[in-house]
């Protein structure tokens, strides 16, 4: 059991977590002359690109927490000569920078070690990327689901044929277009974007007075394209998570998802968690702009990749829907996040926003619109609203408990009669961060764990390999750490095998090679032996790791219990797990440690990235936008901080196991 | 009488007129070390400014048609040493540029002549500005009239006090502001500009939750200012004429005109007339942008001067109304003017436009809106609509003939039952351009002329002197040319004195020192003797000048006659002369040559810059904007080009005198 002091400490740590988390981007191959080892990739070097940039171009992933600013010192590489060995000073690379002197020191520099982000290549070299600098591409689990919605997008595509003016009919081009849209499509009182008016004369005359009008919300003509639908009319649904950004490219005339792209949120370079980022935005001049530009340029990049994949262009994107938690929402829109940093944590805006996508730097069609779903309250953001319009508990009789676990946990409980929501500081432990061997869901991460209660022998699976560890030779396994779903299983199996007790402490009566002692007391449990890892040392779960899982689980469970009590029901009829984490955890193991209220297994559903689905539905169906605006106002936000019963619930809920001693 | 061929030639010339017309900007005194002669102004030189720029800074006006691009060669000055005379090569100025070699040649350069726009000063020099390079500041006659309109501006200013959020009331800042505006001011369904939302948290917390909301058209919150109306809320009415730009700075909370600023339209550097400018926009890549930026930056400058004059800032401007002829309108808004260059001359847009002022580069408050009055048809533009909402013929029983003479002539005839309009190519003669001694209404321009029918002696008045020429010694008079009102009087007086006949030709039976012969035939009439001028030669009116006046007058009169015929009335009940020219011509003289249909003198009114008044009324009264939109659609445009009777009318109307032989 944790003392109150520890709980406070935990919360204060949650606000300051600044561990390094790094992102992975998709890359394409190219021609480069520099040779990277051990991957063996090579091509032609470019004199104005750092080794880090060249590596990215050819798909060699090098760790870089600070994003290439020469601050974190993580992108260490060793420069080697391609011909006969030479001294590091003689190698054809740029001289060491001050940042390198500071972060590496003379000794490492003399050994040929350099920072990839600081070094330019001037001639043929070989670059060795040591294990600790290699970055594994995270498995971003945010595919669009198969679910569909009736097609009624905000952006409509209309073909028009106009009569040219003559001396008897001198109507102006713009007024002519608007009259025709009113007459033939019943769209009265339309306005034209200035850009449309500016270019309409040329468009009409080039296209022999035939054009395709793109109309937004039956209100604005946002584009006039030459001829009969000369290019696809695309939309982009964007889910900006604290850690991951997912973008779904959709054909607005068919509703089909054409491509999905995702990437780490580049804002992680300014801090893992939303609080650190918002503090940066508040305290650093230009900080908010910096964070906004980082996420916007990443979305521009994702859009370029997605459109290129289908032979289109970003200029074919005419509508964007964005969802995200309140902090992501504010930083994305360039809105002062200061009120979210102090009680009572009121957001700057709740209502949905409609602006031109160009207003915040999205580089799509000049007429492209951006719709941002409404925020519910405080930290229950537009992402949660998106989950609601995807799952529609407001349309059902059953009491649903919606759990969306990302970097923060968000809960909604209720049905058509009443909906409650809250947010809990689950912290990053459930994403595999802040644990001794924690890592994100990337190749090499232990994601499944089984412990034999009799022998305490461990079976595990790592991402990237088909079978269990026992199916491979030790050296083939190459485990690198434990991801979120892995830690849940590990703790749950340790509990069920009697390695730990319900209060999280180690059982004292055990003696086993896997139990590591410290000062004579059990302290860690070995999941993978050194030989099964790529690290050369045992991968363990420590008492501190278990505490982190307890805190996260406790916060989530306490939130759920308080919602149930507020609604006056003992338990939900259904549990829906949303978010990438919800898709990959093993429900039985999660239930076994009591992560959420007990519920028959067949009443627990994983819905994947429901926030992304909600964004896509809002892109394709205007009614869902209206529902979102309505439901955001309907949901009653339960502020846990003001609940007298929260601390008691929280302490109880940290017990591992389903029998919540409430 | 002109032959048909001459008429065609005239029209083709109208389309190609590219004579140099230059502008005058207000300047302020400053410290400069360079000494200008003959004005004697001096101060401290700046090494990165050309002599032209330094001259502007100290208020020495030097002719510059091309705006300092080294193209026109008009800004010739002579560099002189301040101490003992030195050779030009030894003077402390930058070496001649290629432009100077081309435009001045070696000989002039050797004499010390330079182009002011190409020359930088490196040490003490004296700069002599020869007469032909001196530019007189035009008397811009576009003061706001005293007329007022009921105050109901599109932009309203509302003071608001909000309750800060607390744990029981977590409403977001933006939603809180909107609820309060709905509750206290009855403004439901307001939208907030993104910039307002972005900065609202800081604004509210700095101002202790008291703010001033600026609301546009009861639809959008365009600004939220800290505290109770911390700064004035200003509007700007802008009349963009082909030649002159006038800007009226208005207090939107009182309706008072705080300042008026005007300047030459800098687009004259690309051509006097709208056709040349639009051709530049169409044919030159980036040409449209260039023309737009020229006029926008001039308006930004006028706004800065006007706001500084009243101790305010351009950021205090929240609403702008722009009027102008269709070409000015299109170029100002960045709209492709190509359709105005070819039959049937349909504009790109007729309806009124509402955009953010920043969308076209106006540097006012970020939320500032821009309203552009509607265009009527073809070349009858938003300036004519502005005249209509200032004069409101649609509200009257009397048949009004509205004549707006600028670089083009626009006519409206009618009353509440029917309104007709047309435009006539009056050309620049009526503005004093394209005449042998024509000049704009600037100091030294002859503006009044009297000819004694007995003696043919001439009395005249020049702008800048109180009395007639006979009140001064010859050298004090310093006439420099004839402006628009002067040429009308000169021609009218020459007709009445029998110097010329009704067909415009010189009477052959006269013998007088003022009549100059060419090949034995009368050719010119002397208005001012050389000694009365600043030019050192006689200022005359030639047969060619008379022809130009006839063509302009003929076009205007023919247009009026065709409107009368179309409406089915013999003559108007009232004539209203709008525009600067209309304010300064002598009505009796204009009637005497038959510029417009006969009408009792007391039924002819000059209303000054009615277009500017209309723009100001639209800024201050939303009903006038609605009237403008309505009347622009009501007015029937009469296309003279399609009228079979136009050429006959035109040829008749070129007769000088009121007895129009129709």
Structure overview:
Two copies of one chain form a homodimer. With 662 residues, chain A is an alpha/beta fold. Among the domains of chain A are: 35-133, Roll (Ubiquitin-like (UB roll)); 155-226, Ubiquitin-like (UB roll); 393-427 and 554-653, Nucleotidyltransferase, domain 5 (2-Layer Sandwich), CATH 3.30.420; 430-549, no CATH class. In chain A, the strands form six sheets. In chain A, strands 11-10-9-12-14-13 form a six-stranded mixed sheet, sandwiched between helices. In chain A, strands 25-24-15-16-17-26 form a six-stranded mixed sheet, sandwiched between helices. Chain A contains 17 helices and 26 strands. Helices cover 30% and strands 20% of the residues of chain A. In chain A, helix 6 (274-283) crosses helix 7, helix 9 (382-391) crosses helix 15 (610-620) and helix 12 (543-567) packs across helix 17 (646-653). Chains A and B meet through helix 4, helix 5 and strand 13 of A and helix 4, strand 6 and helix 5 of B.
């Amino acid at each position: 059991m944790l003392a109150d002091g520890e709980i406070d400490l935990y919360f204060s740590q949650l606000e300051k977590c600044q561990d390094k988390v790094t992102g992975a981007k998709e890359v394409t191959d190219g021609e480069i002359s520099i040779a990277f080892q051990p991957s063996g990739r090579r091509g032609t070097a470019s004199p104005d690109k750092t080794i880090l940039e060249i590596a990215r171009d050819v798909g060699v992933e090098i760790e870089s927490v600070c994003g290439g600013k020469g601050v974190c010192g993580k992108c260490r590489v060793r420069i080697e000569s391609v011909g006969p060995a030479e001294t590091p000073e003689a190698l054809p690379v740029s001289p060491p920078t001050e940042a390198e002197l500071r972060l590496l020191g003379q000794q490492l520099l003399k050994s040929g070690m350099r920072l990839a982000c600081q070094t330019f290549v001037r001639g043929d070299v070989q670059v060795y990327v040591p294990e600790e600098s290699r970055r594994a591409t995270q498995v971003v689990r945010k595919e669009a689901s198969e679910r569909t919605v009736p097609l009624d997008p905000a952006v409509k595509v209309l073909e028009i044929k106009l009569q040219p003016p003559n001396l008897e009919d001198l109507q102006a081009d713009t007024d002519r277009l608007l009259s025709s849209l009113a007459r033939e499509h019943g769209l009265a009182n339309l306005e034209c974007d200035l850009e449309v008016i500016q270019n309409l004369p040329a468009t009409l005359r080039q296209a022999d007075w035939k054009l395709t009008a793109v109309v937004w919300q039956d209100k604005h003509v946002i584009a006039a394209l030459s001829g009969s639908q000369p290019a696809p009319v695309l939309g982009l649904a964007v889910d900006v998570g604290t850690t991951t950004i997912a973008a779904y490219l959709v054909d607005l005339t068919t509703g089909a998802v054409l491509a999905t792209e995702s990437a780490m949120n580049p804002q992680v370079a300014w801090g893992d968690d939303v609080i650190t980022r918002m503090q940066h935005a508040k305290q650093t001049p230009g900080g908010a702009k910096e964070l906004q530009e980082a996420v916007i340029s990443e979305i521009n990049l994702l859009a370029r990749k997605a459109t290129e994949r289908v032979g289109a262009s970003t200029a074919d994107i005419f509508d964007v829907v964005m969802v995200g938690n309140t902090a992501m929402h504010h930083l994305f829109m360039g809105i002062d996040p200061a009120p979210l940093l102090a009680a009572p944590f009121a957001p700057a805006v709740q209502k949905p926003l409609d602006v031109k996508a160009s207003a915040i730097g999205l580089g799509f069609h000049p007429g492209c619109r951006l719709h941002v779903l409404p925020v519910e309250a405080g930290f229950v953001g537009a992402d949660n609203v998106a989950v609601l319009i995807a799952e529609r508990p407001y349309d059902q009789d059953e009491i649903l408990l919606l759990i969306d676990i990302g970097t923060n946990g968000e809960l909604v409980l209720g049905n058509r009669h009443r909906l409650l929501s809250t947010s809990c500081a689950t912290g990053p432990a459930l994403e595999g961060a802040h644990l001794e061997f924690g890592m994100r869901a990337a190749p090499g991460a232990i994601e499944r764990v089984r412990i034999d209660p009799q022998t305490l022998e461990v079976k595990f699976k790592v991402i990237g390999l088909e079978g269990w560890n026992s199916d491979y030779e030790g050296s083939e396994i190459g485990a690198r750490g434990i991801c979120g779903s892995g830690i849940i299983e590990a703790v749950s199996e340790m509990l069920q095998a009697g390695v730990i007790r319900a209060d999280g402490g180690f059982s004292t009566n055990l003696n086993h090679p896997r139990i590591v002692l410290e000062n004579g007391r059990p302290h860690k449990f070995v999941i993978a032996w050194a030989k099964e890892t790529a690290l050369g040392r045992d991968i363990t779960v420590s008492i501190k790791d278990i505490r982190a899982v307890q805190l996260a689980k406790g916060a989530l469970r306490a939130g759920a219990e308080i919602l149930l009590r507020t609604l006056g029901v003992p338990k939900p009829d259904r549990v829906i797990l949303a978010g990438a984490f919800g898709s990959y955890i093993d429900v039985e193991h999660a239930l076994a440690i009591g992560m959420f209220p007990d519920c028959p297994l067949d009443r627990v559903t994983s819905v994947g990235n429901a926030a992304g689905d909600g964004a896509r539905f809002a892109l394709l169906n205007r009614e869902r936008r209206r529902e979102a605006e309505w439901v955001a106002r309907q949901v009653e936000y339960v502020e846990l901080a003001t609940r007298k019963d929260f601390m008691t619930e929280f302490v109880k809920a940290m017990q591992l196991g389903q029998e919540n001693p409430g």
